[in-house]
Design a protein that fits this description.
The protein is built from two helices and two strands; from the N terminus they run αββα. The protein is of the alpha+beta class. The longest helix is centred in the C-terminal third of the chain and has 18 residues. The radius of gyration is 24 Å and the shape is elongated. The two termini are 42 Å apart. 0% of the residues are buried.
Length: 94
Protein backbone atom coordinates (compact mmCIF):
# COMPACT_ATOMS: atom_id res chain seq x y z
CA UNK A 1 0.00 0.00 0.00
CA UNK A 2 1.42 3.38 -0.99
CA UNK A 3 0.03 6.68 0.26
CA UNK A 4 1.51 10.01 -0.70
CA UNK A 5 1.80 12.77 1.88
CA UNK A 6 3.73 15.96 2.53
CA UNK A 7 6.43 16.73 5.04
CA UNK A 8 5.46 19.53 7.44
CA UNK A 9 7.34 22.81 7.97
CA UNK A 10 9.28 21.35 10.92
CA UNK A 11 9.97 18.02 9.19
CA UNK A 12 6.92 16.23 10.57
CA UNK A 13 5.75 13.15 8.74
CA UNK A 14 2.14 12.18 9.32
CA UNK A 15 1.09 8.57 9.08
CA UNK A 16 -2.22 8.17 7.26
CA UNK A 17 -5.12 7.18 9.49
CA UNK A 18 -5.91 3.97 7.62
CA UNK A 19 -2.28 2.85 7.93
CA UNK A 20 -2.24 3.66 11.67
CA UNK A 21 -5.44 1.67 12.13
CA UNK A 22 -4.17 -1.29 10.08
CA UNK A 23 -0.93 -1.43 12.10
CA UNK A 24 -2.58 -0.54 15.41
CA UNK A 25 -0.28 2.45 15.95
CA UNK A 26 -1.23 4.65 18.89
CA UNK A 27 0.17 8.06 19.93
CA UNK A 28 2.32 6.46 22.66
CA UNK A 29 4.31 4.29 20.22
CA UNK A 30 7.99 4.94 19.42
CA UNK A 31 9.03 5.64 15.83
CA UNK A 32 12.54 4.42 14.98
CA UNK A 33 14.07 5.97 11.89
CA UNK A 34 16.84 4.41 9.79
CA UNK A 35 18.67 5.78 6.77
CA UNK A 36 18.98 2.86 4.34
CA UNK A 37 20.89 3.66 1.16
CA UNK A 38 18.92 6.56 -0.32
CA UNK A 39 15.66 6.25 1.64
CA UNK A 40 14.24 6.46 5.15
CA UNK A 41 12.70 3.47 6.92
CA UNK A 42 10.48 4.04 9.93
CA UNK A 43 9.51 1.27 12.34
CA UNK A 44 6.80 1.94 14.92
CA UNK A 45 6.88 -0.13 18.09
CA UNK A 46 4.48 -0.10 21.04
CA UNK A 47 5.73 1.09 24.42
CA UNK A 48 6.81 -1.46 27.00
CA UNK A 49 3.86 -2.78 28.93
CA UNK A 50 3.47 -1.88 32.57
CA UNK A 51 2.03 -5.25 33.53
CA UNK A 52 3.73 -7.35 36.17
CA UNK A 53 5.28 -10.60 35.02
CA UNK A 54 5.30 -11.97 38.56
CA UNK A 55 4.10 -15.55 38.55
CA UNK A 56 4.16 -15.94 34.77
CA UNK A 57 6.68 -18.80 35.00
CA UNK A 58 4.96 -20.53 37.93
CA UNK A 59 3.56 -23.39 35.85
CA UNK A 60 7.07 -24.23 34.60
CA UNK A 61 8.78 -24.24 38.00
CA UNK A 62 9.25 -27.79 39.20
CA UNK A 63 10.91 -27.11 42.55
CA UNK A 64 11.01 -24.33 45.13
CA UNK A 65 14.50 -23.55 46.34
CA UNK A 66 15.19 -21.57 49.48
CA UNK A 67 17.74 -18.76 49.39
CA UNK A 68 21.18 -19.61 50.70
CA UNK A 69 23.38 -22.62 50.07
CA UNK A 70 20.69 -24.65 48.26
CA UNK A 71 20.04 -21.74 45.87
CA UNK A 72 23.76 -21.25 45.18
CA UNK A 73 24.17 -24.95 44.37
CA UNK A 74 21.13 -24.96 42.05
CA UNK A 75 22.43 -21.88 40.24
CA UNK A 76 25.82 -23.52 39.69
CA UNK A 77 24.17 -26.67 38.27
CA UNK A 78 22.02 -24.55 35.93
CA UNK A 79 25.03 -22.54 34.69
CA UNK A 80 27.00 -25.74 34.11
CA UNK A 81 24.13 -27.30 32.13
CA UNK A 82 23.64 -24.19 30.00
CA UNK A 83 27.37 -23.94 29.30
CA UNK A 84 27.40 -27.56 28.15
CA UNK A 85 24.39 -26.88 25.90
CA UNK A 86 26.14 -23.87 24.34
CA UNK A 87 29.29 -25.92 23.75
CA UNK A 88 27.30 -28.75 22.14
CA UNK A 89 28.13 -31.21 24.91
CA UNK A 90 24.50 -31.65 26.01
CA UNK A 91 21.02 -31.58 24.45
CA UNK A 92 18.79 -28.77 25.68
CA UNK A 93 16.19 -29.93 28.21
CA UNK A 94 12.74 -28.35 28.27
Amino acid sequence: MTIKGKVGHKGEIFIAEDLREKLGIDPSWMAYQFLVDDHLEIYCLPPEHGKSLAGSAAEYIKKNIAPGKEWDEAREVAWKQRTEEKMGLREREY
